Every structure is written in C-alpha cells, then in structure tokens.
Please model this.
Amino acid sequence: MNSFRLALRVLRVDRRTRTSAILTTVGVAVATALVLLLVALPFATQARADRASWQDPYFAMRSGQSTGAPVLRMDASTDYIGSERISRADVALTWHTVPELPPGVPEFPAPGEALLSPALAAKVADLPAAQLGDRFGDKVVGTLGEDALSYPGQLVALVGQSADDMSEYAQPLAGFAIHDGEPDPLLTVLAGVGVVVLVVPSLVLVGSAARLTAARRERRLAALRLAGATPGQVTSMVAAETAVAAAGGALLGLAISPVFGKLASFVPWDGGTWQTGDFILPLPLIALIVVAMPLLVLAAAVIALRRVMSTPLGAAAAHSPKPLHWWRLLAVPVAGLFFFVMVNTAESSADVLVVFVALGCLVGSAAVVGPWVTSVIGGIFVRVWRKPAGLLAGRRLRDDPRGAYRASAGVVLAVFAGSMALTLMPTFESKAGGGREFQDHVLYLNAGTEQAEQIVRAANADLERYGQQERATPVGDVVLVNGEGSGQSALLLNCADAENLLRLDMRGSCAGAPGVYSEYRIETEGLEVRADYDSAGVPLAKDTPWRPIASSDDMYSSVVVDPAVVPDSLTAGTVTVAVPTTKENREVVRTALVGAANGAPVMSRELMLDREQIQLADLRRVTVIGLIAAAVLAGCSAAIATAGSVMDRRRTFGALIAAGTPVRTLARALRMEAALPAMVATICAGAVGVFVGTGLLILIEEGAPVLTPWILAPIVLGAGVAALAASVCTPALKRVRAEPLADE
Model:
C-alpha cells in the first residue's frame, strides 16, 4: 500500500485524525484567503490610482507628458459639497488636436462645458445651481464612466476652460496620464504589517489543529520505524497525510477568497469603497501563494518528525525532551536590532520589503523565546508550589515547554498586534489639527497678485448676484526684515478684517492707530517690508506702533501688518483670497469663489480638519477589523491547543482519573498551564509591540510615539482570551473520563 492510500485509510478509520485534518484544512483555508486578500491590497490601490491618474497633472508630468509638444493645459483641485470631496480637473486645449482620452472619458469638454461623474451629476440635479451647479460652467455635456473613477460614487468634474482663463498654476501637457497612478503608500504598509500579524496567527491555528493527534501519530510512526520502516517511508506517510489536509485547505482558501475580496470592497478607504475587480491578483502570484501555503505546512510537519527519525524508541516511550538553553533569549534582541537597523536605513520600496522581513523575524522570535520562558515558569512552580494543581501545571510546563507555549502563541501575536496599533493610533491622532491662521468658517485660495485682483472682483460680483452680504478680501503675504537682516513672515491685512478672518484675539487693538500686530514685541524702527526675503524692501511709516495680540494654541505665531502703514509702492508676492461664511450660505459662497478661481483649489481649516478625521477613521476601522480577526484566530488556536494538550495526554489523565484525581483539580492544572505562560508572554509581547510601533513611526516620519493607558488593554484582553480558551479543558477531561482507558 502506498503512502497516499495509507493516509486516506488512517483518515477514514481514525476519528481523531479526521477531526485534526478537518481543522487543519479550515486553518489553511483561512490563512490562504487572508494572504490572497492582504497581498491584493497594493494591487487594489494601484488599480484605483490607475483609473484616477488622469485627474491629476502630476501623473502626466511623471509619465513624460510634459516633455512633448503641449496640446492642453490642466489644473487639478479639490472641491467640496458639504464634507464630501469633489475631484475637479480644469482643462483647456492649446492646440487643435484633441489628445488621447482616458478610459471612461467620452469627450473633451469645450470652454463652459463639463463632464460629471454619475454621483456628482445626481447632486447637481438635486441642489440649487447657486449651491453647486454653477461651479462647473454653463452646460453638462456628458457623464464619466466607472473606468474614470477611483471608487464607486466618486464625485469628479472635468471642466472645460479657455486657455486665457486657466489658473496660473495650470500645467502644459502633451496628453493625459493613462493608467499611470501610484499605490497608496500607507495602505501598502498596512497590508505588509497585516500579512505578518494576521497570517502568523493563522499558521499557529494550523499548527494547533495539526497537533491534536500529535502524540498518537508520533507513537504510530515510531512503531512503524521500529518495525523496519525507513525514514523515507515514514516521511512520505506524514507528507501524504498532511498534504491531503493542506492542499484541500489551500484550494478551499482560493475558492473563498472572492468572498473575502467582496467583503473588503465594502470597507471605505480614502473617501470611498472599492470596485469588485480591484482585489484580483495576477495568476502567477495566485498560483505561488496557493502552492506555498501547503508547502509551508508540509515542511513544518516533516520537521516535527526529528525525534521519530532519530530516536523512535524514545518517541514510543514518550521520553522527556532535552531542556532548553538560555541562548534562546537572544532571539528577541537580535531580531529587534535587525528590525531597528532596517527601519532606520530604509529608503526605497525594496528596503521596505526588507523591513517587513525584519518584522516577520521579530514576530517569529517569540516562538523561540516563548518555550524557554514557559520552562522557567514551570521550574518556579515545581520549586515553590505545593498544591496538586500547581505542581501538575509546573511539571507540564517544565517537561514540555514547547507544547505548553503552543496554546499561548496565537494570543501573544494578537497582543503584539494590539500594542503596536495602540502605539500608532494615538500618535496619528495627536498630529491632527493645526492649519492656517484663518478661522474654521473662512474659505480661502492662493493666487498671484494680478490673478487675485480678478478673482476678488469676479467673486464679489457673483456674491452680490446671489444676494450675499459677504465679500472676498485679499490677504497679502509679505516679509518683515529688521536692520540685522532677520526676516519674519507677515500678513498684509487691516485690523478689522484680521479680527473677522483670523484665529487671533486682537485685544482691542483695532481701536487705536494702524500698526504692526504680533504676540511678541517687534521694534518697528528701521523695519522694512518686502514681497519676499530676496526682493527690495520699503520702510514702514515713521512711528508705526506695535500692538500685542494673542493666537490659538495650535497655530504658529502670526504677525499682521496694516496696509495703512505700508507704502503704496509695495506689491505682495502672493495673495490669499479669503471669504467668511455662515452655515447657511457656505455652499453659495464656495460656488462664487470656485467660479471666480477657474480651477484654483478653495480650502478651509474646517474641511482640512474634517479630512484628517476621515483618514483617522479609516485607520481606526482597518485597525479594529485586523485586531478582531487576530483575537478570533488567537482564541481559536488557544482553544484547539488546549484540547490537543488533553488528547495528547489521554493515557496520563485517564490514569489519574482512574486513581481518583478529581476532574476539577486536573482542569485547574490545565488552566494554570495555559494562563501563566500567557500572562508573562503577553506582557513581553506588549512591550515588543510598542517597540515595533515606534519603529514604524520612524519609517513613516511621524516622530516620537504618544503612549496612553490604553496600551495596557491588549495585555489584559490577551490574558482574558487565553483564560477563556483554556476553559475547554473541562469538557475535554470529562470526555476522557467517559471513555474506557483501554482505548489507549
């Protein structure tokens, strides 16, 4: 009988082996589906970026469309309706030839015409023209297809302009960028981290399932070796038995991966969800993953045969393994040093892959150190504890630390992931806020001096036509230079407008003569005003007063110079056009300002803060999903490992029960076996998670971490999950008591 047929026969007649094989199949399927999904994330972001690359002239310039003869000018900006983002592209032909159009764009809009995405067209139809429709010219001539949208429901406008009306920031291009986007770097990093912190617990789950009948199978294989079977024959038997479950699991994972992709497509990111086809991997990569997953499981099963191969008599007699050496403790600092060096030296995308390898080594080092720590805990209990449950637990931890740690391995990885996430998230949240000097309700845009004058006139005319009282105000950006050559940026704005537009407390300064306003004292004698630091300056009027003001805590010190104290000959280098709004007229004012700007981006601090909160919400959502998945996998692996521990020692427990040992004493010993190593290991895993989170912050240049008391939550929850999973030992022991001891 060949090895494959023997494996099928064992699966058919042995219920415990069949149960182990089914759980192994499920574990491999989950691991395979997770790997396929996480590896597909960078491809999904690439697909998104490729579809939307035509919306931004940056990608056209990067692809070489700025080096040929220009046929169009293009400017990209971000507009808003409420808090919803609108991606706007203004274009104008500079040559009679229309360039190649991106997929999903049916035609090139003439001046005054626009093409809108279906979702934006629906909003234009539902809202008054003064609130939205007037921003996009005189006529909507078409609808953008799905191939032109980053995500379903994206709000996009392609607006035609004449070349003379284009913003001064518009870029001359030889054509649109077509399928030339860049994947989201943050989501790519999160995908790499997810592969490590979710797939490893999945493999731990697979290992726990495979160990359900480890002792029984080891004795069976040892008996075959003693009966004359060669190492090759034993290996082929195990390979065949494992391959049936692993290969079936990989194929099942491939079959259910579209379901994972479909569920992932409903998770919002960067303002929208995903198209179903975004999570499709190239066929060679799919084949590689589907083949690699069962090979990893197969390799682990074959490596586990070392004792059966070398000492079959010891395996059959269940002799105690050799004690573990202290050098295992070096695994964590060595892996941590490797990770830290890679993080600090990473520059290219290839280096980031090495960082993920280093992260994997750091996560894997727990499997090296964990058993040694478990053995030390067992030795302490054997020496100092005198109650039966504690002595039984200590002896188990001391004699089989690898098997005892196996129940904690998944929990340790979940705690590691949670601590890392709770190091990153508060730091990201602490960076939120800030923004320019303008109050939250003020809309503003940047322009050159001449263009700013045109925008102010056009915007004020539209505001008057819409019946609004607000008016656009130009705010010049200038530099104050003292006699020693030191410069200070300042805003050219009268005191009343500064009080109305800026986040400053003028402290009653507007009642006095015009002057210079700042938080700290400025000596105005000999002070010059310049358009920029390198241009010629003009002196301030004599006896110009300085007046104190106060600013918000989250903004830099601002200096305001009243135009009345500046000679008329000075022209600011750049100008910000600002308009105050109310909740009721915000969209009407935005329409007037956007229409006057001809594509220049209109922004406000309120929208910037809202944008930050959307990004933080995306991160929180992905983090919660990942941690829930890691916790579920960890709990399942701990429960299966605990049940497997009971099944491995059926003879021992059966004999103890037959000798009169209460089941509750054995159950208490098993719970101590699971809980004690988990408590120590989770504390260590939490510390390593904080270390890795700090390293990732260095990688993405977010500075020092912000630690909160919530950093302890994964450790507490991890210990709770381990204790809860250990509760399965009581039903397993009762089953042992119910079965005849002669079965073993």
About this structure: The chain is about 55% helix and 10% strand. The chain has four domains: 1-56+182-319, 59-173, 373-433+606-744, 442-605.
